[in-house]
Structure formats: C-alpha cells, structure tokens
Amino acid sequence: MNKVRIAVLCSGGGTNFQAIVDNAEAGLLPHGEIVLVIADSPDAYVIKRAERMKIPTAVFDKKKYPRAEREEKILEKLREEKIGLVVFAGFMTILSEKFVSAFRGRIINVHPALIPSFCGEGMYGLHVHEAVLKAGVKVTGATVHYVTEVCDGGSIIAQRAVEVREGDTPEILQKRVMREAEWIILPQAVEEVCKKLQGEEI
Q1: What is the model's pLDDT at position 101?
Q2: At how many degrees (to 10) do helices 126-135 and 170-177 cross?
Q3: Please, what is the end-to-end C-alpha distance for the chain in angstroms?
Q4: What is the spatial order of strands in the sheet that 57-59 belongs to?
Q5: 112 upstream amide cis, omega within 30 of 0
Q6: Which of 16, 142, 143, 148 could form a disulfide linkage to 89, CB 3.0–4.6 angstroms apart?
C-alpha cells in the first residue's frame, strides 16, 4: 500500500505538526506519511522538531524571497517530493490562486475558530481569540477545512467546539483550543483525507 506523501507547512512552533506525528507514531495515520516540513522562517521551532524526528525540512525565508518567488520555490519542492497532501499547520503565508490550483483538493488548513465565525483576512493567531472574547460568545473551537482561493473559505472537513470560560485571556483560550480541538481534529482529518486520496494520481 503506497501511503500518501504529506508535506506540513508551518511558520512557528509546530505543535499541530507534533500532534500529527504523535498520531502517526500511534498507528493512527495508516494512509499517510509525513515526508517533508516547510517553514517560511529559519527560526521556526518546527524545524527542530522535524530534525529530531529525522523528517526532511526546507526553509524558504519570507525575509529573503518575495512572496511570488517563495511560492514558486515551495511549489517546485512539493512537486519534486511528489507530495500528495499539503497540510497548513500555522502557516502564515496566504498563497495565490495558482498555488491552490496546483494542489486543488489536496491542501487542508486548521483554523482556531468555528468557521464561518471569526475567520477571513486578518483572523489568525491571537487575533482570533481576542475577537472571540470581545464578542462575548460562550463557545469557540477549531475547524479543519480545504484551502481555496478564498481565505478560510474552503469546505469544512471537521470541527470541534471548546468552551469559553470566565476569566479567559486570549493566550489561555488559545492553549485550550489547541489542546481540546486543534490537536485532536487535525490529525484525524489528515488521515481521513489521505484515505480519500489514496490511489488517486498526483
């Protein structure tokens, strides 16, 4: 059985990447295999995580390459590695229609809110949790969705709700959403999508 070759794109610490790896090590990713980690900063801690696990890495520094050139280099690397599924796990670069078209139906993203709430342009990282607390809602969560040209606009694969508690700060809420939602549904969605993609031509 040929597993779907997965590339994880990340800009920061890589906790979602770690969650996928943990699932894989527990035998919960039978249809996929992480073969590449791409970061857009040489300082991204995800690189160290990947190196510890002997997973190949590539860095296309956003300070070094303009966006269009960086995107072209990422695409080239993905094709070179015969990647079947691209996973955005805290990747802070919004990519073009050209990029999305090259991997249509093969790019997924995790967003730290229940889409269609608190999503779209400018809604990333702590900004999402700040908006949630400002709105006074009692429930938030995370969403895994397909990536399209529309920011956070692709069809939803999985969602999980998380309680907003009195006294929450954006930082506290961010950690709860990661722990109780993102780290659970992203690895599950990766396996679900790999299972669907298996056998399709790349």
Answers
A1: 93
A2: 110
A3: 15
A4: 57-59, 32-39, 4-10, 85-88, 107-111, 139-146, 156-163
A5: no
A6: 16
Q: What is the pLDDT of residues 122-159, one digit of tens each?
A: 999 999 999 999 999 999 999 999 999 888 899 999 99
Q: Is 125 exposed, middle or buried (0-12, 13-18, 19+ CB in 10 A)?
A: middle
Q: Name the β-bridge partners of 144.
A: 110, 158
Q: Contact 145/152 with Cβ under 8 angstroms?
A: yes
Q: Which of 31, 111, 129, 145 is catalytic?
A: 111
Q: What is the pTM of this model?
A: 0.94
Q: Count Cβ atoms below 10 Å from residue 146 Cβ, excluding itself.
A: 18
Q: Are strands 57-59 and 4-10 parallel, antiparallel or unpaired?
A: unpaired
Per-position DSSP letters for 43-100, written without gaps between them:
T-THHHHHHHTT--EEE--TTTS-HHHHHHHHHHHHHHTT-SEEEESS--PPPPHHHH
Specify whether 111 is catalytic: yes
